[in-house]
Protein backbone atom coordinates (compact mmCIF):
# COMPACT_ATOMS: atom_id res chain seq x y z
CA UNK A 1 0.00 0.00 0.00
CA UNK A 2 1.41 3.39 -0.89
CA UNK A 3 1.72 5.98 1.83
CA UNK A 4 -0.98 8.08 0.23
CA UNK A 5 -3.34 5.14 0.00
CA UNK A 6 -2.73 4.22 3.56
CA UNK A 7 -3.43 7.76 4.68
CA UNK A 8 -6.67 7.81 2.70
CA UNK A 9 -7.64 4.48 4.20
CA UNK A 10 -6.82 5.62 7.74
CA UNK A 11 -8.78 8.81 7.19
CA UNK A 12 -11.82 6.92 5.94
CA UNK A 13 -11.58 4.46 8.82
CA UNK A 14 -11.28 7.31 11.28
CA UNK A 15 -14.29 9.10 9.85
CA UNK A 16 -16.28 5.87 9.79
CA UNK A 17 -15.42 5.07 13.38
CA UNK A 18 -16.25 8.54 14.64
CA UNK A 19 -19.52 8.42 12.69
CA UNK A 20 -20.37 5.08 14.28
CA UNK A 21 -19.45 6.39 17.71
CA UNK A 22 -21.65 9.47 17.30
CA UNK A 23 -24.68 7.63 16.00
CA UNK A 24 -24.18 5.11 18.80
CA UNK A 25 -24.21 7.95 21.31
CA UNK A 26 -27.35 9.41 19.76
CA UNK A 27 -29.03 6.02 19.84
CA UNK A 28 -28.03 5.47 23.47
CA UNK A 29 -29.34 8.95 24.22
CA UNK A 30 -32.74 8.05 22.81
CA UNK A 31 -33.07 4.73 24.64
CA UNK A 32 -35.19 4.95 27.80
CA UNK A 33 -33.09 2.27 29.53
CA UNK A 34 -29.86 4.18 28.91
CA UNK A 35 -31.49 7.41 30.04
CA UNK A 36 -32.48 5.65 33.25
CA UNK A 37 -28.87 4.56 33.81
CA UNK A 38 -27.52 8.04 33.09
CA UNK A 39 -30.20 9.56 35.35
CA UNK A 40 -29.18 7.31 38.21
CA UNK A 41 -26.18 9.59 38.68
CA UNK A 42 -28.62 12.44 39.29
CA UNK A 43 -29.94 10.76 42.44
CA UNK A 44 -26.37 10.15 43.56
CA UNK A 45 -25.43 13.79 42.97
CA UNK A 46 -28.46 15.02 44.88
CA UNK A 47 -27.88 12.71 47.83
CA UNK A 48 -24.16 13.41 48.04
CA UNK A 49 -24.68 17.15 47.76
CA UNK A 50 -27.32 17.03 50.48
CA UNK A 51 -25.06 14.90 52.68
CA UNK A 52 -22.02 17.05 52.17
CA UNK A 53 -23.62 20.47 52.34
CA UNK A 54 -25.87 22.35 54.72
CA UNK A 55 -29.20 23.03 53.02
CA UNK A 56 -29.73 26.03 55.26
CA UNK A 57 -26.50 27.66 54.07
CA UNK A 58 -27.04 31.08 52.59
CA UNK A 59 -26.24 31.97 49.03
CA UNK A 60 -23.59 34.66 48.81
CA UNK A 61 -25.01 38.17 48.83
CA UNK A 62 -23.20 40.76 46.73
CA UNK A 63 -22.71 44.50 47.03
CA UNK A 64 -24.75 47.06 45.04
CA UNK A 65 -21.69 47.66 42.85
CA UNK A 66 -21.91 44.06 41.63
CA UNK A 67 -25.44 44.39 40.22
CA UNK A 68 -25.64 43.48 36.50
CA UNK A 69 -26.70 46.39 34.31
CA UNK A 70 -27.74 43.79 31.71
CA UNK A 71 -29.63 41.17 33.75
CA UNK A 72 -30.85 38.76 31.10
CA UNK A 73 -34.56 37.91 30.83
CA UNK A 74 -34.88 34.28 29.75
CA UNK A 75 -37.75 31.86 29.16
CA UNK A 76 -41.02 33.78 28.93
CA UNK A 77 -40.60 37.54 28.76
CA UNK A 78 -44.30 38.28 28.35
CA UNK A 79 -47.61 36.55 28.96
CA UNK A 80 -50.43 35.98 26.48
CA UNK A 81 -53.13 35.00 29.00
CA UNK A 82 -56.13 37.40 28.80
CA UNK A 83 -56.65 37.62 32.57
CA UNK A 84 -53.01 38.39 33.08
CA UNK A 85 -53.01 41.09 30.40
CA UNK A 86 -55.95 42.75 32.11
CA UNK A 87 -54.08 42.77 35.42
CA UNK A 88 -50.97 44.06 33.68
CA UNK A 89 -52.94 46.94 32.12
CA UNK A 90 -54.29 47.69 35.55
CA UNK A 91 -50.89 47.71 37.25
CA UNK A 92 -51.85 44.50 39.10
CA UNK A 93 -54.07 46.58 41.43
CA UNK A 94 -56.77 43.87 41.70
CA UNK A 95 -54.39 40.95 41.31
CA UNK A 96 -54.36 38.33 44.08
CA UNK A 97 -51.89 35.56 44.76
CA UNK A 98 -53.74 32.40 45.78
CA UNK A 99 -52.27 30.09 48.43
CA UNK A 100 -54.27 26.88 48.68
CA UNK A 101 -54.08 23.10 48.54
CA UNK A 102 -53.12 21.36 51.78
CA UNK A 103 -53.49 24.43 53.99
CA UNK A 104 -55.82 25.20 56.91
CA UNK A 105 -56.63 28.74 55.75
CA UNK A 106 -56.41 29.39 52.00
CA UNK A 107 -55.17 32.90 51.26
CA UNK A 108 -55.63 35.45 48.50
CA UNK A 109 -52.90 38.07 48.85
CA UNK A 110 -52.75 41.39 47.04
CA UNK A 111 -49.46 43.10 46.17
CA UNK A 112 -50.08 45.44 49.11
CA UNK A 113 -50.44 42.40 51.40
CA UNK A 114 -47.12 41.03 50.15
CA UNK A 115 -45.39 44.40 50.54
CA UNK A 116 -46.52 44.67 54.16
CA UNK A 117 -45.62 41.05 54.96
CA UNK A 118 -42.26 40.29 56.61
CA UNK A 119 -39.60 40.20 53.95
CA UNK A 120 -36.13 41.19 52.94
CA UNK A 121 -33.87 42.44 50.16
CA UNK A 122 -30.94 40.46 48.82
CA UNK A 123 -28.38 40.94 46.06
CA UNK A 124 -27.74 37.50 44.63
CA UNK A 125 -26.36 35.78 41.57
CA UNK A 126 -28.83 34.16 39.20
CA UNK A 127 -27.31 31.13 37.44
CA UNK A 128 -29.04 29.97 34.28
CA UNK A 129 -28.80 26.30 33.35
CA UNK A 130 -27.43 27.55 30.01
CA UNK A 131 -24.30 28.72 31.78
CA UNK A 132 -24.55 32.49 32.19
CA UNK A 133 -24.95 34.44 35.45
CA UNK A 134 -26.45 37.83 36.30
CA UNK A 135 -26.55 39.63 39.62
CA UNK A 136 -29.67 41.45 40.79
CA UNK A 137 -31.27 42.90 43.90
CA UNK A 138 -34.51 41.26 44.90
CA UNK A 139 -37.05 42.52 47.40
CA UNK A 140 -39.93 40.36 48.44
CA UNK A 141 -41.99 38.70 51.10
CA UNK A 142 -40.40 35.74 52.86
CA UNK A 143 -42.26 32.61 51.87
CA UNK A 144 -42.04 30.88 55.28
CA UNK A 145 -44.22 33.32 57.29
CA UNK A 146 -46.86 33.28 54.53
CA UNK A 147 -47.01 29.49 54.74
CA UNK A 148 -47.35 29.78 58.52
CA UNK A 149 -50.21 32.20 58.04
CA UNK A 150 -51.97 29.73 55.74
CA UNK A 151 -51.14 26.84 58.08
CA UNK A 152 -49.69 23.86 56.21
CA UNK A 153 -51.49 20.60 56.87
CA UNK A 154 -49.24 17.85 58.27
CA UNK A 155 -49.24 15.93 54.99
CA UNK A 156 -48.09 18.92 52.90
CA UNK A 157 -44.60 18.18 51.55
CA UNK A 158 -44.15 20.33 48.46
CA UNK A 159 -45.26 23.67 47.11
CA UNK A 160 -46.32 23.90 43.50
CA UNK A 161 -46.06 27.31 41.82
CA UNK A 162 -48.61 27.79 39.06
CA UNK A 163 -47.59 30.52 36.62
CA UNK A 164 -49.39 32.65 34.05
CA UNK A 165 -46.88 32.12 31.25
CA UNK A 166 -46.71 29.37 28.66
CA UNK A 167 -43.62 28.20 26.80
CA UNK A 168 -45.34 26.63 23.82
CA UNK A 169 -48.57 26.62 21.85
CA UNK A 170 -50.75 24.66 24.28
CA UNK A 171 -51.98 26.83 27.19
CA UNK A 172 -52.49 23.82 29.45
CA UNK A 173 -49.67 21.48 28.51
CA UNK A 174 -47.11 24.23 28.03
CA UNK A 175 -48.04 26.30 31.05
CA UNK A 176 -45.07 27.05 33.31
CA UNK A 177 -44.98 25.59 36.78
CA UNK A 178 -42.38 24.69 39.37
CA UNK A 179 -42.18 23.01 42.74
CA UNK A 180 -39.92 23.06 45.80
CA UNK A 181 -39.82 21.16 49.07
CA UNK A 182 -40.42 22.66 52.51
CA UNK A 183 -36.74 22.99 53.40
CA UNK A 184 -36.28 25.33 50.45
CA UNK A 185 -39.63 26.99 51.16
CA UNK A 186 -38.55 27.95 54.69
CA UNK A 187 -35.01 28.99 53.69
CA UNK A 188 -34.51 32.62 54.79
CA UNK A 189 -33.55 33.69 51.26
CA UNK A 190 -36.66 32.20 49.65
CA UNK A 191 -38.83 35.14 48.63
CA UNK A 192 -41.88 36.04 46.65
CA UNK A 193 -40.10 38.92 44.96
CA UNK A 194 -42.16 41.92 43.88
CA UNK A 195 -39.25 44.29 43.24
CA UNK A 196 -35.99 44.04 41.33
CA UNK A 197 -33.17 46.56 41.65
CA UNK A 198 -35.47 48.86 43.69
CA UNK A 199 -38.14 48.96 40.95
CA UNK A 200 -41.42 47.08 40.73
CA UNK A 201 -40.64 43.71 39.11
CA UNK A 202 -40.63 44.27 35.31
CA UNK A 203 -42.90 42.10 33.18
CA UNK A 204 -39.95 40.46 31.42
CA UNK A 205 -38.65 39.32 34.81
CA UNK A 206 -41.98 37.91 35.98
CA UNK A 207 -44.30 40.69 37.22
CA UNK A 208 -46.04 40.95 39.55
CA UNK A 209 -44.27 38.25 41.59
CA UNK A 210 -41.54 35.72 40.95
CA UNK A 211 -40.10 33.10 43.22
CA UNK A 212 -36.53 33.52 44.44
CA UNK A 213 -35.13 30.23 45.61
CA UNK A 214 -31.39 30.94 45.73
CA UNK A 215 -28.83 28.11 45.55
CA UNK A 216 -30.69 26.62 42.60
CA UNK A 217 -30.59 27.10 38.85
CA UNK A 218 -32.62 29.81 37.12
CA UNK A 219 -35.53 27.69 35.95
CA UNK A 220 -36.57 27.03 39.56
CA UNK A 221 -37.22 30.78 40.04
CA UNK A 222 -40.75 30.69 38.62
CA UNK A 223 -41.99 33.96 37.13
CA UNK A 224 -45.59 35.27 36.92
CA UNK A 225 -46.62 33.24 40.00
CA UNK A 226 -50.43 33.16 40.26
CA UNK A 227 -51.05 30.39 42.71
CA UNK A 228 -49.12 28.42 45.30
CA UNK A 229 -50.54 24.99 45.97
CA UNK A 230 -49.38 22.87 48.91
CA UNK A 231 -49.34 19.19 47.94
CA UNK A 232 -48.26 15.85 49.32
CA UNK A 233 -46.78 14.75 45.99
CA UNK A 234 -46.54 16.17 42.49
CA UNK A 235 -46.71 12.79 40.74
CA UNK A 236 -50.18 13.51 39.41
CA UNK A 237 -49.50 17.08 38.31
CA UNK A 238 -48.88 17.46 34.58
CA UNK A 239 -45.80 15.46 33.55
CA UNK A 240 -45.32 14.33 37.14
CA UNK A 241 -41.72 15.57 37.42
CA UNK A 242 -42.52 18.72 39.38
CA UNK A 243 -41.93 21.44 36.79
CA UNK A 244 -42.10 22.56 33.18
CA UNK A 245 -38.41 21.91 32.50
CA UNK A 246 -38.32 18.89 34.77
CA UNK A 247 -41.01 17.31 32.57
CA UNK A 248 -38.61 17.98 29.68
CA UNK A 249 -35.62 16.17 31.15
CA UNK A 250 -34.02 18.69 33.53
CA UNK A 251 -33.37 17.85 37.18
CA UNK A 252 -35.98 18.69 39.80
CA UNK A 253 -33.06 19.12 42.11
CA UNK A 254 -31.38 22.04 40.39
CA UNK A 255 -28.33 22.43 42.60
CA UNK A 256 -25.66 21.78 39.96
CA UNK B 1 18.97 -8.88 14.74
CA UNK B 2 18.81 -8.11 18.40
CA UNK B 3 16.17 -9.97 20.29
CA UNK B 4 13.64 -7.91 22.16
CA UNK B 5 12.92 -8.30 25.82
CA UNK B 6 9.39 -8.00 27.14
CA UNK B 7 9.06 -6.60 30.61
CA UNK B 8 6.10 -5.50 32.70
CA UNK B 9 5.70 -1.79 32.23
CA UNK B 10 2.24 -0.86 33.54
CA UNK B 11 0.45 -2.26 36.57
CA UNK B 12 -3.13 -3.45 36.35
CA UNK B 13 -4.45 -0.40 38.19
CA UNK B 14 -2.73 1.99 35.80
CA UNK B 15 -4.03 0.12 32.76
CA UNK B 16 -7.65 -0.14 33.93
CA UNK B 17 -7.86 3.43 35.22
CA UNK B 18 -6.18 4.69 32.05
CA UNK B 19 -8.84 3.22 29.75
CA UNK B 20 -11.74 4.17 32.02
CA UNK B 21 -10.32 7.68 31.93
CA UNK B 22 -10.18 7.60 28.11
CA UNK B 23 -13.88 6.71 28.03
CA UNK B 24 -14.95 9.15 30.75
CA UNK B 25 -12.92 12.10 29.46
CA UNK B 26 -14.10 11.60 25.85
CA UNK B 27 -17.73 11.58 26.90
CA UNK B 28 -17.21 14.43 29.38
CA UNK B 29 -15.60 16.52 26.65
CA UNK B 30 -18.36 15.90 24.11
CA UNK B 31 -21.23 16.36 26.56
CA UNK B 32 -19.39 19.40 27.92
CA UNK B 33 -19.34 20.95 24.45
CA UNK B 34 -23.09 20.29 24.25
CA UNK B 35 -23.51 22.21 27.52
CA UNK B 36 -21.20 24.99 26.30
CA UNK B 37 -23.32 25.31 23.14
CA UNK B 38 -26.34 26.35 25.25
CA UNK B 39 -24.51 29.66 25.77
CA UNK B 40 -21.41 29.73 23.57
CA UNK B 41 -19.68 32.63 25.29
CA UNK B 42 -17.27 32.95 28.22
CA UNK B 43 -16.61 35.70 30.73
CA UNK B 44 -14.34 36.58 33.65
CA UNK B 45 -15.66 37.40 37.11
CA UNK B 46 -18.80 36.47 39.01
CA UNK B 47 -21.35 37.51 36.40
CA UNK B 48 -21.74 37.50 32.64
CA UNK B 49 -20.90 40.79 30.97
CA UNK B 50 -22.99 40.04 27.91
CA UNK B 51 -21.58 42.82 25.75
CA UNK B 52 -17.99 41.92 26.61
CA UNK B 53 -17.43 38.15 26.53
CA UNK B 54 -13.78 37.19 26.08
CA UNK B 55 -14.81 34.51 23.66
CA UNK B 56 -18.06 34.05 21.77
CA UNK B 57 -19.23 31.93 18.87
CA UNK B 58 -22.13 32.84 16.64
CA UNK B 59 -23.34 33.45 13.13
CA UNK B 60 -23.20 36.62 11.08
CA UNK B 61 -24.64 37.58 7.75
CA UNK B 62 -22.13 37.88 4.88
CA UNK B 63 -24.00 39.20 1.84
CA UNK B 64 -27.05 37.10 2.52
CA UNK B 65 -25.11 33.98 3.49
CA UNK B 66 -24.62 32.94 7.11
CA UNK B 67 -21.05 32.53 8.29
CA UNK B 68 -19.73 31.24 11.59
CA UNK B 69 -17.82 33.87 13.53
CA UNK B 70 -15.67 33.30 16.60
CA UNK B 71 -14.57 36.37 18.50
CA UNK B 72 -11.62 35.98 20.86
CA UNK B 73 -10.56 39.01 22.91
CA UNK B 74 -12.10 41.36 20.36
CA UNK B 75 -10.53 39.66 17.32
CA UNK B 76 -13.08 38.12 14.93
CA UNK B 77 -12.32 34.94 12.99
CA UNK B 78 -14.47 33.32 10.31
CA UNK B 79 -14.98 29.74 11.46
CA UNK B 80 -17.85 28.59 9.23
CA UNK B 81 -18.35 24.83 9.24
CA UNK B 82 -16.68 24.33 12.62
CA UNK B 83 -17.47 27.05 15.17
CA UNK B 84 -20.51 29.31 15.28
CA UNK B 85 -22.23 27.97 12.18
CA UNK B 86 -22.10 24.44 10.81
CA UNK B 87 -24.33 22.21 8.69
CA UNK B 88 -26.89 24.96 8.21
CA UNK B 89 -27.26 25.57 11.93
CA UNK B 90 -26.17 28.27 14.35
CA UNK B 91 -24.26 26.43 17.07
CA UNK B 92 -20.99 26.82 18.99
CA UNK B 93 -19.25 23.49 18.39
CA UNK B 94 -20.32 21.29 15.44
CA UNK B 95 -22.56 18.24 15.72
CA UNK B 96 -19.68 15.76 15.39
CA UNK B 97 -18.12 17.16 18.57
CA UNK B 98 -21.15 16.99 20.87
CA UNK B 99 -23.24 14.39 22.66
CA UNK B 100 -25.96 14.08 21.59
CA UNK B 101 -25.11 15.37 18.11
CA UNK B 102 -28.28 17.50 18.02
CA UNK B 103 -29.00 20.34 20.43
CA UNK B 104 -30.26 18.92 23.74
CA UNK B 105 -28.92 20.54 26.91
CA UNK B 106 -30.89 18.31 29.30
CA UNK B 107 -29.36 15.16 27.79
CA UNK B 108 -25.90 16.71 27.65
CA UNK B 109 -26.11 17.41 31.37
CA UNK B 110 -27.26 13.87 32.09
CA UNK B 111 -24.25 12.41 30.25
CA UNK B 112 -21.90 14.93 31.81
CA UNK B 113 -22.84 14.30 35.42
CA UNK B 114 -22.94 10.53 34.98
CA UNK B 115 -19.43 10.36 33.53
CA UNK B 116 -18.24 12.98 36.02
CA UNK B 117 -18.92 10.38 38.72
CA UNK B 118 -17.05 7.70 36.78
CA UNK B 119 -14.15 10.14 36.32
CA UNK B 120 -14.09 11.06 40.02
CA UNK B 121 -14.29 7.51 41.35
CA UNK B 122 -11.72 6.32 38.83
CA UNK B 123 -9.45 9.25 39.68
CA UNK B 124 -9.69 8.61 43.42
CA UNK B 125 -8.76 4.95 42.94
CA UNK B 126 -5.79 5.96 40.80
CA UNK B 127 -4.58 8.69 43.18
CA UNK B 128 -4.97 6.54 46.30
CA UNK B 129 -3.14 3.67 44.64
CA UNK B 130 -0.50 5.99 43.21
CA UNK B 131 0.36 7.25 46.68
CA UNK B 132 0.10 3.94 48.53
CA UNK B 133 2.00 1.82 46.00
CA UNK B 134 4.75 4.39 45.58
CA UNK B 135 3.92 4.74 41.87
CA UNK B 136 4.08 8.53 42.05
CA UNK B 137 7.29 8.57 44.09
CA UNK B 138 9.10 5.89 42.13
CA UNK B 139 7.83 6.33 38.59
CA UNK B 140 6.47 9.84 38.18
CA UNK B 141 8.52 12.25 40.28
CA UNK B 142 11.59 13.33 38.31
CA UNK B 143 14.93 12.56 39.89
CA UNK B 144 17.32 15.35 40.70
CA UNK B 145 19.57 14.07 37.93
CA UNK B 146 16.77 14.24 35.40
CA UNK B 147 16.01 17.82 36.36
CA UNK B 148 19.53 19.06 35.67
CA UNK B 149 19.48 21.60 32.85
CA UNK B 150 21.86 19.51 30.74
CA UNK B 151 19.74 16.41 30.95
CA UNK B 152 16.53 18.36 30.36
CA UNK B 153 18.01 19.92 27.24
CA UNK B 154 19.26 16.55 25.98
CA UNK B 155 15.75 15.14 26.37
CA UNK B 156 14.21 18.07 24.49
CA UNK B 157 16.68 17.62 21.62
CA UNK B 158 16.02 13.87 21.50
CA UNK B 159 12.25 14.43 21.39
CA UNK B 160 12.57 17.07 18.68
CA UNK B 161 14.43 14.48 16.57
CA UNK B 162 11.95 11.74 17.48
CA UNK B 163 14.75 9.76 19.07
CA UNK B 164 13.50 7.78 22.01
CA UNK B 165 15.25 5.94 24.75
CA UNK B 166 16.34 2.37 24.09
CA UNK B 167 17.54 -0.40 26.34
CA UNK B 168 17.61 0.03 30.08
CA UNK B 169 16.83 3.73 29.75
CA UNK B 170 13.49 2.87 28.17
CA UNK B 171 12.38 1.11 31.34
CA UNK B 172 11.59 4.38 33.07
CA UNK B 173 9.65 7.47 32.03
CA UNK B 174 11.90 10.16 30.61
CA UNK B 175 11.83 13.55 32.25
CA UNK B 176 9.51 15.13 29.67
CA UNK B 177 6.98 12.37 30.20
CA UNK B 178 7.17 12.90 33.95
CA UNK B 179 6.83 16.66 33.59
CA UNK B 180 3.70 16.30 31.48
CA UNK B 181 2.03 13.34 33.27
CA UNK B 182 2.49 14.74 36.79
CA UNK B 183 0.79 18.13 36.28
CA UNK B 184 -1.92 16.32 34.33
CA UNK B 185 -2.89 13.89 37.09
CA UNK B 186 -2.16 16.13 40.09
CA UNK B 187 -3.21 19.52 38.73
CA UNK B 188 -5.24 19.67 35.55
CA UNK B 189 -7.61 16.76 36.11
CA UNK B 190 -8.39 17.76 39.74
CA UNK B 191 -8.84 21.33 38.48
CA UNK B 192 -11.58 20.10 36.13
CA UNK B 193 -13.48 18.68 39.09
CA UNK B 194 -13.00 21.78 41.26
CA UNK B 195 -14.01 24.27 38.58
CA UNK B 196 -16.96 22.04 37.70
CA UNK B 197 -18.12 21.99 41.32
CA UNK B 198 -17.66 25.77 41.46
CA UNK B 199 -20.43 26.17 38.91
CA UNK B 200 -22.95 24.46 41.20
CA UNK B 201 -25.09 27.10 42.96
CA UNK B 202 -25.90 24.57 45.69
CA UNK B 203 -22.25 23.84 46.32
CA UNK B 204 -21.42 27.58 46.19
CA UNK B 205 -23.73 28.25 49.13
CA UNK B 206 -22.18 25.47 51.20
CA UNK B 207 -18.53 26.18 50.31
CA UNK B 208 -18.33 29.75 49.02
CA UNK B 209 -14.53 29.83 49.23
CA UNK B 210 -14.06 27.50 46.30
CA UNK B 211 -15.77 29.59 43.64
CA UNK B 212 -14.03 32.69 45.06
CA UNK B 213 -10.71 30.92 44.61
CA UNK B 214 -11.33 30.94 40.87
CA UNK B 215 -12.52 34.55 40.85
CA UNK B 216 -16.27 33.95 40.59
CA UNK B 217 -18.61 31.58 38.81
CA UNK B 218 -18.04 32.85 35.28
CA UNK B 219 -14.28 32.71 35.79
CA UNK B 220 -14.70 29.13 37.01
CA UNK B 221 -16.62 28.32 33.81
CA UNK B 222 -13.81 29.90 31.78
CA UNK B 223 -11.08 27.98 33.65
CA UNK B 224 -13.12 24.77 33.20
CA UNK B 225 -13.18 25.42 29.43
CA UNK B 226 -9.49 26.31 29.16
CA UNK B 227 -8.47 23.29 31.26
CA UNK B 228 -10.55 21.06 29.00
CA UNK B 229 -8.70 22.58 26.04
CA UNK B 230 -5.35 21.84 27.70
CA UNK B 231 -6.40 18.23 28.28
CA UNK B 232 -7.28 17.95 24.57
CA UNK B 233 -3.90 19.45 23.70
CA UNK B 234 -2.16 17.01 26.05
CA UNK B 235 -4.05 14.11 24.47
CA UNK B 236 -3.05 15.16 20.94
CA UNK B 237 0.63 15.33 21.90
CA UNK B 238 0.33 12.13 23.93
CA UNK B 239 -1.18 10.18 21.03
CA UNK B 240 1.37 11.66 18.62
CA UNK B 241 4.20 10.53 20.89
CA UNK B 242 2.66 7.09 21.25
CA UNK B 243 2.62 6.76 17.46
CA UNK B 244 6.11 8.20 17.06
CA UNK B 245 7.67 5.92 19.68
CA UNK B 246 5.97 2.71 18.56
CA UNK B 247 2.20 2.49 18.36
CA UNK B 248 1.81 -1.24 18.93
CA UNK B 249 4.42 -1.57 21.63
CA UNK B 250 2.86 1.31 23.56
CA UNK B 251 -0.68 0.09 23.04
CA UNK B 252 0.25 -3.42 24.13
CA UNK B 253 1.92 -2.10 27.25
CA UNK B 254 -1.27 -0.26 28.21
CA UNK B 255 -3.41 -3.34 27.51
CA UNK B 256 -1.39 -6.38 28.62
CA UNK B 257 1.21 -4.45 30.58
CA UNK B 258 4.12 -5.84 28.53
CA UNK B 259 6.53 -3.45 26.87
CA UNK B 260 9.31 -4.57 24.55
CA UNK B 261 12.76 -3.09 24.84
CA UNK B 262 15.79 -3.64 22.71
CA UNK B 263 18.71 -4.58 24.90
CA UNK B 264 21.55 -2.13 24.77
CA UNK B 265 24.30 -2.62 22.21
CA UNK B 266 26.91 -3.74 24.71
CA UNK B 267 24.64 -6.47 25.93
CA UNK B 268 23.68 -7.62 22.47
CA UNK B 269 27.04 -7.62 20.83
UniProtKB/TrEMBL annotation, chain A:
Domain Oxidoreductase molybdopterin-binding, chain residue ranges per copy: 93-232
InterPro entries assigned to the protein according to its UniProt record, in alphabetical order: OxRdtase_Mopterin-bd_dom, OxRdtase_Mopterin-bd_sf, TAT_signal
PROSITE patterns named in the record: PROKAR_LIPOPROTEIN (PS51257), TAT (PS51318)
Pfam families xref list: Oxidored_molyb
Protein name as annotated: Molybdopterin-binding protein
Organism from which the protein derives: Phenylobacterium deserti
TrEMBL record, chain B:
Family annotation (Pfam families): Ni_hydr_CYTB
CC per GO annotation: plasma membrane
Residue spans crossing the bilayer: 12-36, 111-132, 181-203, 223-244
SUPFAM superfamilies from the UniProt entry: Transmembrane di-heme cytochromes
Topology of the protein relative to the lipid bilayer: Multi-pass membrane protein
Annotated InterPro entries: Cyt_b561_bac/Ni-Hgenase (IPR011577), Di-haem_cyt_TM (IPR016174), Hydrogenase_cytochrome (IPR051542)
Entry keywords, A to Z: Cell membrane, Membrane, Transmembrane, Transmembrane helix
MF-aspect GO terms: electron transfer activity; heme binding
Gene3D superfamilies: Transmembrane di-heme cytochromes, Chain C
Ranges for domain Cytochrome b561 bacterial/Ni-hydrogenase: 9-257
Superkingdom in the source lineage: Bacteria
Compartments reported by the entry: Cell membrane
Protein name, as recorded: Cytochrome b561 bacterial/Ni-hydrogenase domain-containing protein
Annotated source species: Phenylobacterium deserti
Amino acid sequence: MSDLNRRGWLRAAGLGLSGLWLSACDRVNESPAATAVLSSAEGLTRRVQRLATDRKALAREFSPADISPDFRANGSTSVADADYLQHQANGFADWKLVVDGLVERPLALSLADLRSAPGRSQITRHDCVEGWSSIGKWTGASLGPILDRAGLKPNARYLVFHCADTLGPDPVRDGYYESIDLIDAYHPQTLLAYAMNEEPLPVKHGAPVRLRVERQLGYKHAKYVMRIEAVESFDQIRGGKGGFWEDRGYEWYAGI
Amino acid sequence: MRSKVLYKRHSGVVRVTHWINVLALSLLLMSGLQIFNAHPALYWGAKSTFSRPWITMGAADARGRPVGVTVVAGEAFVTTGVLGYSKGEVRGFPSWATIPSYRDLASGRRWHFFFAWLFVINGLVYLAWGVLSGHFREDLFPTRQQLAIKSLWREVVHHARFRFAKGEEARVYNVLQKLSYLPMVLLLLPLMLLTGLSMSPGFNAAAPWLVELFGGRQSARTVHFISAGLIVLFTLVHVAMVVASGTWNNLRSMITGKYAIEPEKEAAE
